[in-house]
Design a protein that fits this description.
two-stranded antiparallel sheet; transport; 16 helices; Phos_transporter; globular; membrane; phosphate transmembrane transporter activity; transmembrane helix; about 0% strand
Length: about 400
């Protein structure tokens, strides 16, 4: 009887994980292509299809670090049980479903973090204050970094004394150099679970002398080489047609950020089940990430179009240049969060960039009322999800048994 109950709990937890991942695909993985849709560079339905594929790939290749943080580092003294994971995931998914219905994006990181803290406290755990400080500082800096970088970049791109064949290709070169150093699970590395393209190619040719902090000359040369190739590709397209070249770069950026969003978001669905899969069931982490990736894929295909329209057209009326300015900091911040294992909200990052890029052309295109309502939603989500998940787990435990 006990074994049957445990199997039922496992099944319920996995179904809830899939539901949470579905909501993430429909909600939090939508903003990366919102600027491209707002700039008429891609249709809404095509963007939803591409988002699903790229976000699922990112979930499989980059989702491990965020999953571990959510599953083990948000509460001290207890481990998350299948029942507690189910209560937490239901709470977070419920909040984000409200966001989809009301067309106000709910930050998945806030909803999930609050929900897992709530169930952890309900289990009798202690607050992980060091983790909360680290998350809080990073979250507070995100709007400043994203909005500030987007505003600065958009201002430079709009300057008459900066040729189109220089400004956009230079940004493409910077993005390319960063992509060369993004850690991916499919690239082997003798010293880490995930390797980088620059490090892998460098090792094939001996690496060369170490310059600083274990960075060898070969890695630097590959990084510069990829950046130069990206610069050349973008410059050639801009030379042929300025508008088509800029739109092409905007689409590539959207794809890169969508990939990053999968890596940064899937852990919000799979993290609560880390202890169940790795410890109690002894299964590999990639299997759990695959479950999350499937949910994200289906969610993006089914639910993303509604939110894509809201974020692309109601927050700011952006052109292609300001749209690029919104996505570049989004990509950088998302990859930084993945490297640090910090759960983040892509909604927060991209919308801050959209607003910053919109303000670079004047405030007329930015809905101040909707921005204010969105920020209020975010703050209410973080606090109320703790309370709701705490009570929901208590309800489940009293009816089923912890």
């Amino acid at each position: 009887m006990v074994a049957v109950s445990f199997v039922v709990l496992i099944g319920a937890a996995i179904v809830t994980c899939l539901f949470m991942a579905w909501v993430l695909g429909a909600n939090s993985n939508s903003p990366p292509f919102a600027p491209a849709i707002g700039a008429n560079a891609i249709s809404t339905m095509r963007a939803a299809f591409v988002i699903g594929l790229l976000a699922a790939a990112g979930a499989l290749m980059q989702g491990g670090s965020i999953s571990e943080t959510v599953g083990a580092d948000l509460i001290d003294g207890v481990t998350i049980t299948p029942l507690a994971a189910t209560a937490g995931l239901l709470t977070a998914a419920g909040f984000m479903a409200i966001g989809i219905y009301t067309r106000y994006p709910i930050p998945a990181a806030f909803a999930t973090t609050g929900a897992m803290i709530g169930v952890g406290l309900s289990l009798g755990g202690d607050p992980a204050m060091a983790t909360y400080r680290r998350l809080g500082i990073f979250w507070l800096l995100v709007p400043i970094m994203s909005g500030g970088l987007a505003y600065t970049t958009a201002t430079i791109l709009r300057r008459d004394d900066v040729p189109e064949t220089v400004g956009v290709p230079l940004l493409a070169g910077i993005v390319g150099a960063i992509v060369a150093n993004v850690r991916l699970g499919v690239i082997p590395d003798p010293a880490a679970e995930q390797g980088t393209l620059a490090g892998f190619l460098s090792r094939q040719f001996g690496g060369g002398p170490v310059l600083a902090a274990d960075i060898d000359l070969g890695t630097v040369l590959v990084t510069v080489g990829v950046g130069v190739l990206a610069f050349y590709w973008s410059r050639e397209r801009v030379r042929v047609s300025v508008e088509d070249g800029i739109r092409s770069f905007l689409l590539v950026l959207g794809g890169i950020v969508a990939f990053s969003s999968g890596g940064s978001q899937v852990g919000l669905a799979t993290g609560p089940l880390e202890n169940l899969f790795r410890v109690e069931l002894g299964l590999p982490g990639i299997l759990l990430l695959a479950i999350g990736a499937i949910g994200i894929l289906v969610g993006a295909w089914m639910g993303a179009p509604r939110l894509l329209q809201a974020t692309s057209r109601e927050y700011a009326q952006l052109g292609v240049r300001r749209s690029i300015a919104a996505l570049v900091p989004g990509f950088i911040i998302a990859q930084l969060a993945i490297a640090l294992g910090i759960p983040i909200s892509l909604n927060n990052i991209i919308l801050s960039g959209v607003i910053g890029g919109g303000l670079a052309g004047g405030s007329a295109g930015v809905s101040r009322r909707k921005i204010g309502i969105t920020i209020t939603f975010w703050l209410v989500t973080l606090s109320s999800s703790v309370v709701v998940s705490y009570g929901l787990y208590r309800l489940f435990a009293s009816g089923i048994g912890g």
